[in-house]
């Protein structure tokens, strides 16, 4: 069989994956804190027809002769660039300007934090006990566990350094806690687990807990939310490129099939 036919099949599979990634990016264009994906290809091994030779015997050198056998998927990157900040004016909407992730987890009755996960989506809420949680009920973790604002508090505020303060029933200003941020040596090594959440892997490194504005972590911007970093113009351009690439590879298969058909017809 012709090598070109198998190269075309490999190319079609790769562009299908690229279209899958583009489709997911476009679907999450308005997802808070979403980080877009990017597909990278690389060439497969090349078949050696003849090797290279150096100059000798009065003749110059000869380059190698190789035939490439197609392409394969090299990587699907998660691009952790900063998304634009959208002002909401809501006290529990928080965006991180700079590096870092919010820490979310389950917390037992002894205030022990278990199964931490990480997110850039800062839309938080208060539950019936006054604890700060995300939309799925995971607790926002501070420096000493979950953060609670008493239900009888008159008002509360969150500073750029993550300090959560409230005015109690007597009119006194009380600090409820400080929001914790997590940093990783390699953000792109984090694994997406859905629901705007990430978890560390062996290639991301362990989470380094810090305070907003400290140790290279970003600051908090209360009353705003970080939007997706998906650029629709870029995604539509990449979609056209992927579509044309897919069509070109189908054309390779069609042309290869026509050549094989001609070979079969030689016997007639």
UniProtKB/TrEMBL annotation:
Compartment(s) where it occurs, according to its Swiss-Prot or TrEMBL record: Bacterial flagellum basal body
Residues of the Flagellar basal-body/hook protein C-terminal domain: 222-266
One Pfam match: Flg_bb_rod
Keyword field contains RNA-binding: no
An annotated GO BP: bacterial-type flagellum-dependent swarming motility
Keywords of this entry: Bacterial flagellum, Cell projection, Cilium, Flagellum
InterPro entries: Flag_bb_rod_N, Flagellar_basal_body_rod_CS, Flagellar_FlgE/F/G, Flg_bb/hook_C_dom, FlgE/F/G-like, LlgE_F_G-like_D1
GO terms for cellular component: bacterial-type flagellum basal body; bacterial-type flagellum hook; cytosol
Flagellar basal body rod protein N-terminal domain mapped to chain residues: 5-35
Domain Flagellar hook protein FlgE/F/G-like D1: 95-166
Family, per entry: Belongs to the flagella basal body rod proteins family.
Entry function: A flexible structure which links the flagellar filament to the drive apparatus in the basal body.
Entry protein name: Flagellar hook protein FlgE
Species whose genome carries this gene: Anoxybacillus pushchinoensis
